[in-house]
Amino acid sequence: MNLSKESEDAIIEVSKSHSIFLEGNLLKVLESDNAEFVRYIEKAKKKDKETRQKRLDVTKKVQSQNNELEKRAKDNDRLMRELQEVLMSAENAKKSVEQDLDVLQKKSQFELIGNIVNVALSIIIGVGVSTTLLYGYALYYSVDTTVIGNAWSNTFGILLTNSFSIIGTIMGVKYATSEGTKK
Amino acid sequence: MNDIINSILLVDDENLFHLVFEDACSLLDITLNLQTVSSSDEADRLFAKWNAQGTGKPECVFVDLNIVGSSFDGIELIRRINYVHGNGVVVGIISSSSENFEIEKAKEAGAQFWIVKSDEIEPRLEQFRDNYSTYKDRTSEFKVYT
């Protein structure tokens, strides 16, 4: 592509007065018989090449940094997912331990209640049997049974009442424990 | 000026690579007319338009393999360029991947070359430019530039 002499002179003048040069692919298609404009084109091409090389280097650097950032973002996402999984696993383990501890506590409570019941039943049965034996002995040997008879009936009444009281307490404890578990 | 490719279309979702490719092409005097698009859909629409108008199509097309945000990948775009639009342009892949099965798929779709993207893209583009005439007259074998 050829420009008029006036255009060439104007372009050269702008480069001299303002250091502004033509850029880009246009320079590759410009032709001229004017030696001064040919020198101008060569100079402009050189400047354009330098600018493009600088831009290419910067762009490549940015591109490389972007790729690195993307890679790190992916790594971060992966780490976050792994962290989330570990956290969930720890929470599940905590729940499991809490459940085990709860079961263990209830087991100890039931064992304690069982022991209390066994002791209470032993005492009740023991007192009942001994009073009955004493009453039977008195009847067999025709001893005065006024006192022992009343004592026997009173004892049985008390023991019966206490038995119901113990059973009620046990049922209450069991009910309260099962309500706590449901919550 | 003999080696200069009249017009090139680059299809790549990475805008920074558009700049890299443009500067590399300019520095290596590969082309004076470079058009860039970011999706395979857009490229497909352009080919349909150029077909309808009968003018404007590029001489050579560089297609990225995985084009994020597009309906189809680079290999499908090459298949469409070759078999749907039938433009007979020089077309190939420019990708950071160099998986053999992908390369085979690209060959089957009608790709003529595969350029591996890296920080040093210029030597590969230079080699491609030197072989370009053989791609244009369809005498060159498929080649991978690594």
Could you characterize what this model shows?
The complex is a heterodimer of chains A (183) and B (146). Chain A has one domain. In chain A, 88% of the residues lie in helices and 0% in strands. Chain A has 4 helices and no strands. The two termini of chain A are 89 Å apart. Chain B has a single domain, classed as Rossmann fold (3-Layer(aba) Sandwich), CATH 3.40.50. Chain B contains 5 helices and 6 strands, in the order E-H-E-H-E-H-E-H-E-H-E. The model of chain B has no long low-confidence stretch (mean pLDDT 90). The interface between A and B is medium-sized, with 16 and 14 residues.
Arithmetic mean of pLDDT of chain A: 86
Task: Provide the structure class of chain B.
Answer: alpha/beta
Q: What is the ordering of alpha helices and beta strands of chain A? A: HHHH
Strand content of chain B: 15-25%
Q: Unreliable segments of chain A (pLDDT under 50, ≥5 consecutive)?
A: none
CATH architecture of chain B, please?
3-Layer(aba) Sandwich
Number of domains of chain A: 1
Q: How much helix is in the residues of chain B?
A: 40-55%
Q: What is the multimeric organization of the chains shown?
A: heterodimer
